[in-house]
Every structure is written in structure tokens, then in C-alpha cells.
Write a structure and sequence with these properties.
Length: 338
Amino acid sequence: MKQLTFIKAGLLEWHEAKLPTLQADTDVLVRPLAVARCDLDFAAIAGRAPLPGPYAIGHEFIAEIVEMGDSVSSLNLGQKVIVPFQISCGKCRYCLRGFTGSCLAVPPMSMYGMPSNRGFWGGAMSDLVRVPFAENMLVKVPEGIEPKNIASLSDNIVDGWRTVAPYLSNIVEAEVLIVGGGALSVGLYAAAIAVALGAKRVDYIDHDKTRLDIAQSVGANPIDDKAYKQAGSYQITVDASANVDGLKCAICCTEPEGICTSVGIYFSESTPLPLNHMFYKGITFKTGRANSRAGIPHVLELINSGKLRPEKLTTKLATWDDAAEAFKDPSAKVVVAR
Ligand SMILES: [Zn+2]
Ligand SMILES: [Zn+2]
């Protein structure tokens, strides 16, 4: 089969790969229908992430089931499913607590579309993908929802959701600050979700006109601030800047006893944090990967209610055959569909 392969910064090629096969009776094989480009994929393509090629790219995807192991009974052939980017069994003590990104049944960091030292599971830009623990991993696509509209649910939409949703439910009339610019789409999804969940105010900082316009279109207040000097005070802050100044801005704008979540990956061994400032304000700081499988049903609820329309954040829709070029597009969210 053909598989889109990340070779090095700026270069993606279609390579031949072996078709995956069922390896356990709890596996299914799926055919990807719509694939979204994760913000981390673009960081690698732009040469900003230490993810050495070659590897099969793509880990945000909606697919249809084409083959099932003998013990799979709650799914059907032809069913459209959301595939979480992380492999999770649904039964271990981490999965049971919702930490599906740290499943104990597979090697650490097992996920699709990454270099093989993070577990080799293949990439979504392929004709077929094997899904283990299928009945626990896969989430059915609700009737009436187009795969291309929700392809990023596997990762980036859930990533945006977890920065704001768990806290908004506990704070009345919360004000939210999102510092964007690094994780291109996660910051925008966080903004859209905070608005959808009824935050009193959502401010979105960036220096890119197009992303600022998108933030405004989903109901956030755009703030053009390349220097990340914005001052203010917010109960909930999000660092999606992947920039040390942006991180500091988010933390320093967090009000006493507030919570700041950083989704930007800082690849250097040591990144400065204003701990003294955080101590006196009693700030909670959260970082790490989203727990994809656990978060997907919560975001689907928002989409089903009509409050969140992820397709409004898609900046480029391309055909499958054009993916090698489309994945290099610098806009926030590329989606490829068959
Ligand atoms: Zn990702
Ligand atoms: Zn598990």
C-alpha cells in the first residue's frame, strides 16, 4: 500500500509499505477517510521539532472499519469511527482513570504517525491501519457528521478542550486567556471551546492575522501582540505559543489560585519558569499530552449540541493525492479527505 512518509523538514514522499494484518481477535483494520494535520506534524515539517524521519505521518483521523477480529462484536464493517492518536487498552489502571495517553498495555508513547522509537503503529496517511483493543479504542462517528469536519478530534481538538473545559465548569463567569502562535490549531480550538462553554470573556493573543481572524470568528477577542507583553488577569490561561516569552506571558497573566495549561512542547532540556511568581499567586501549572480516548466523548457532546463546529477552524481542505504538498501549508489546520 502507499503511505505518506515524512522524510525530513520540507519533504514528504509516498512510499510503499506492507499491508497491516489482524494480530489479535480484538483488532480491527480501518481505512482512513479523513486525516487532519496535527500541530506537531507541522512543527516537524517546518524543521522545528526533533522528530527524525523517515516515518509514516498522520495521527488525527476518521476511518471506516474494513476487517474485524473474531471477538469484536460491538462494531460493524463499514462503520465510521474516530481513531484516538494514542494506543490505549481501556482496561489498565491508567486507562480506567482516564489517563489513556499512558496505557500500561503498550510501550510508553505508543501512538500513530510518529518515529518508531515511540512505538510503531503506522501512520494515518495510509490505505489501511491496524487498531488494537478496537472496542475500547474506537469511538463511533455520530450520524450526520462528516468525517472531514471532525478529523482533528483524535488529538488537537481534545488537546484544546482539556485546557479549558474541566476548569470552566467550576468557575462562574470565568475569563480565559489563550496565548497562541506555536501549536497553531490547539490554541484556536481552546478559544472556540471556551466560547462554546460560556466563558465570560476569551482573549486570544497571536501575531498572525489569519489566526487572529479565526479566533474572532469563533467569538474570542483577538489581540495582536507579537512581543507577548499583554497584561491582564485571568482565572484560566493557556500557553499554546511554544515560545518562552509566550509561556511567561500566560503564567504572569494567571490570577491568584488560577490555572495555566501549557500545550506547547518545549524540546530543550531546561525551560525557565517564573516559579517565584507562581508561588506567591498560588498558580496551578499543568502540562503534558492530552488523553485522547478519554476526552473524545466529551468533545463529541459539544459538537452534537451544535455549540462547537470544528470545521470553522479548518484552513485548508485537500484531496488525498495532494497530501504531500498540502501538509506543508503553513495555515493552522489542514485536512485531507478521500
Ligand atoms: Zn498530535
Ligand atoms: Zn490501558
